[in-house]
Amino acid sequence: MIHFESDYLEGCAPQILEALRQTNLEQTLGYGEDPHCERAADMIRYVFDCPDAAVHFLVGGTQANATVISSLLKPYQGVVCAETGHIHVHETGAVEHGGHKVLALPARDGKISAEQILNFVQAHHSDFSREHMVQPGMVYLSFPTELGTLYTKQELLDIREVCRNWELPLFIDGARLGYGLEASGCDLLPKDLPAIADVFYIGGTKQGALFGEAVVFSNSELAEDFRYNIKQNGGMLAKGRLLGIQYEVLMNEGLYFSLARRADRLADRIRAAFKHKGIPFLVDNTTNQVFPILEIGAIDRLTVEFGVERWQIVDETHAAVRFCTSWATTDAAIVALEAYINCNY
Amino acid sequence: MIHFESDYLEGCAPQILEALRQTNLEQTLGYGEDPHCERAADMIRYVFDCPDAAVHFLVGGTQANATVISSLLKPYQGVVCAETGHIHVHETGAVEHGGHKVLALPARDGKISAEQILNFVQAHHSDFSREHMVQPGMVYLSFPTELGTLYTKQELLDIREVCRNWELPLFIDGARLGYGLEASGCDLLPKDLPAIADVFYIGGTKQGALFGEAVVFSNSELAEDFRYNIKQNGGMLAKGRLLGIQYEVLMNEGLYFSLARRADRLADRIRAAFKHKGIPFLVDNTTNQVFPILEIGAIDRLTVEFGVERWQIVDETHAAVRFCTSWATTDAAIVALEAYINCNY
Amino acid sequence: MIHFESDYLEGCAPQILEALRQTNLEQTLGYGEDPHCERAADMIRYVFDCPDAAVHFLVGGTQANATVISSLLKPYQGVVCAETGHIHVHETGAVEHGGHKVLALPARDGKISAEQILNFVQAHHSDFSREHMVQPGMVYLSFPTELGTLYTKQELLDIREVCRNWELPLFIDGARLGYGLEASGCDLLPKDLPAIADVFYIGGTKQGALFGEAVVFSNSELAEDFRYNIKQNGGMLAKGRLLGIQYEVLMNEGLYFSLARRADRLADRIRAAFKHKGIPFLVDNTTNQVFPILEIGAIDRLTVEFGVERWQIVDETHAAVRFCTSWATTDAAIVALEAYINCNY
Amino acid sequence: MIHFESDYLEGCAPQILEALRQTNLEQTLGYGEDPHCERAADMIRYVFDCPDAAVHFLVGGTQANATVISSLLKPYQGVVCAETGHIHVHETGAVEHGGHKVLALPARDGKISAEQILNFVQAHHSDFSREHMVQPGMVYLSFPTELGTLYTKQELLDIREVCRNWELPLFIDGARLGYGLEASGCDLLPKDLPAIADVFYIGGTKQGALFGEAVVFSNSELAEDFRYNIKQNGGMLAKGRLLGIQYEVLMNEGLYFSLARRADRLADRIRAAFKHKGIPFLVDNTTNQVFPILEIGAIDRLTVEFGVERWQIVDETHAAVRFCTSWATTDAAIVALEAYINCNY
Lengths: 345, 345, 345, 345
What we know:
The structure is a homotetramer. By secondary structure, chain A is an alpha/beta fold.
């Protein structure tokens, strides 16, 4: 069985294990106040060209989302997002647990537009019953989206403009940020993230780390006392340096990006193999997730040999499945999959 | 500088790093539903002699406390604990963030008694204004306590009796559980924990793991749907097997206990050295934390060579400091400290 | 200007003011533990034929909804409702403030169906990622709905069946319950409410009381310790008897129902007048709210003389407005409105 | 039986009932946006000499406290108060339900001092583990306290200074504000409240209204979007004018103060009667609550004829009871009590 179910099936990039080994007996202060975290933060500020940013390391995505969101909203405010947004669908109500409503907008291929946000916000503020409604207090986007699609730079700039005009912090969930930045056709550079978002994170868990998400507040004022929030939300790792060490490795010589690039190229090969056979896709995308639409019988046969996630029923006879590549996907696995596709469709 | 500030200054027991290396390219399902977590849970059930217990792995202590407590309480209930309890003092209000009051009782050497709990609960239920007060809904203890002291088995049995009579789940925070069980004079065995507590955890972070706390519900009914709670509280690690692998190693051939035993014995040597010089202690204890009371000038001199935590002012000229030993403390460090104490007090 | 904006424009039924005057100097215990509350609860149990029900009086609807819902859900559960449900739209996220997600389903004329609920609940429990999603924990309906429409008895029985099969408490928001029960075509009797719902409330604020909602737990076990919840949610009125006194009056000789019946009949006359002129309606309903669809210019002219709520844009040239009748609506007001409609459409 | 159990045993000052009767058929907008609320707010701003204050009307004290506090704190902050403070003891954890810890300081006769607050805040900010602790975010005082005692103007000015230096909003719970301001020996004037507190409330429920608390934000910036908070906390009364009408009456010709003054003088007579007999008091106070310490047998005899609240055990043979006077206490009741005291002690 060759596995493509997710991008967190394996441990971590070997360089990270090696760094953990080398540093194992160092003695450092806990809770992220150690030289590794400091250096990793510096490296991130350099790579993403945001010298004044505040960088905090958290263990996982749900935790990062819940902590950032509850730190930015007033009690009566909610977070605007796509109806397909991870915080709305797959975090067991962590945002609501923190007291806030997720204000979900209809999504197209996992994306929402500046115009949608503007209309929603204007509608709220022009409603004479607005005090009876949750006030939009920030905007959450995923880049790439949960469907592996990407916002263009212009789309993000447009969203940023609405956010600034309405004083809504813009938060970009980058659980798979590298896969987005390295995708063919992506017109964003790392430095665009802090320029566009008030806060974003650089996902590690799905991109070669054992775990970890680096939260970057471009506007460091928004991060005031953020460490209290981290602790209160159960996200302050005692041996915080484990996060610093991992990001030191990932930011070193572009490893974060080269691992992602390779995974994206392998995903391109899967897409090409299906396309060659005329197989349609749930969405047109270029990152490390591939969503072909297959006959249900074909899926049953496929999954004898290849592990995929059954994503979504499309019609009575077809469903979309998801293939994920990652830093750990082997060429051999891709070759085997290509051969299978060529023979079976 | 030789460091005794805490028991989480270093990485992890080398056996754990090695296990991570060996398993690194295994492909497993995420979120704790993998064979390592399953096997680690089995080993815990065996070692703690609780074949029907439910075992869940969380990343850290604050997270474990907040998740367990909010899963057990009704909205209007609070958790009874010692005023020195970690949840009351050092978790940035994580319990309150989840909506619950911490009902702190006066503590003696970090401990509360069955009688105190009984009086408190009876007072609540006999108060004709009780509906205007937070109802005690469970009891939280630390073993060892935050001051490194231990409850005797009888004390715990007495508390259990009160808890059962009043239908209050008893939760034991075992962030340093091994150091307690291996302390000289401790009359508890591992199997006593599930027999006494409804839920407890086996701390890994401070006992040789990179991170991790194994939450054990002796009464597995209390753990129904607990995984939803973990996810909602941001505690479900994507690569959950990292926790399973670590506990497999720690439970193997008693490593968890032998690491703790050694640390306790090293702490005994620190205590003996101070005692020999007639130095008093903040508390009389036998676990891996040592709290001598020193003159403030002596502390300033000491801390040039040895890292300790300045714990508490005792009077105008004296303060207590904390020395921690751990799995990583070297004999050489203890020898150097013994020599220093012999020469300087 | 003649006002039809809402059903809470005036004070209260004169009988209530008179009862307040007569009881003003009585001395009673506070917080709802007085003979008036007791007697009002008995009257409700009699009128709604639920001798074992637990009855609690709250001040307002948002408070009643938030308190009941948070008392019934576990932390990781949400409340299923129509997307038009008051708790989803017009309570400023009070449910989320209590930590719970509102699980909104697409609505038809303000209603959801047993089938929708069943599909949603089944989809949750058959999803292998369900622990990453908010678990449906109860169902909330409004009777009448926010659009003044009614569920038939059969529709409610079908919903009840799904709820019982899946152990989901069914909660009916009866802010306008009387207007529903007295509407032409309604096939429910008061006694059907406790037979169908696990908990419902008998709205007072919009039905002739100064304020107040009587929450009825048909299944009194669900109400255990509910008074703690009331207090914690800020809903325990010090002079609780004010609520008891009002419900004594409303339940006396069917006043609650006769006030509602008259208002419904007046609304029928408004509907008839518009229908006579061929004016369409946003929904086909029979309660005290009337939603004709008018040309926007016509609305501007109408609102010079009659106060209505501008409800919803329908197309570029038309919008729906809302007329409310209430216990306080005068015949003269209806006559004037009928004349206006006859002349102007 | 003559009742002195509380100051909310009866309905309301007759002038209020009369005003409700006169306005009953007026038609006004709901939710506090009506001319009565507007006028009442103006009257309050005039009487308390705070022309720029924001005034909001809530139904009850617990609701007012929870809503104000959660509107002012960041998630990781708590509210500093006396251990006897109502929010800590008698609100079923409403503050914690909103996510915040109550940081209780030892109290003396129900009061805390500027020095205590300063020490606590300084200790927090100088603690190197402060991010692991709840940050003090505001200060809550009761005037009068829950024990009927009063802060002097100087004590409050000192507290204000600490609060300003540390940017902690100061919130004064004035559930019995009038009884405080009218007490013999009180050196505060109404205008001192807005000058000292950032927000305070003028209690109605215990001072002659049916219900209601007028929350005054001296610093109206702190009240931004406060109505959203009110709604979210279930405190926005549909017929908001009921609150406006009551405060119009109470603020008219000083009724609020004259009712309180009379109650205080009646309480003085109770105190004098006990003092004449050499009976000691739990606290030395001058407001409408009287706390004599009596033999337990004497209490049993007393309570055959007079209703009091059994307040607190003092020693094995003595307990303190509480007598409350109010706007509704009759001279005859006081005369009867004086006679009883004279004869029985």
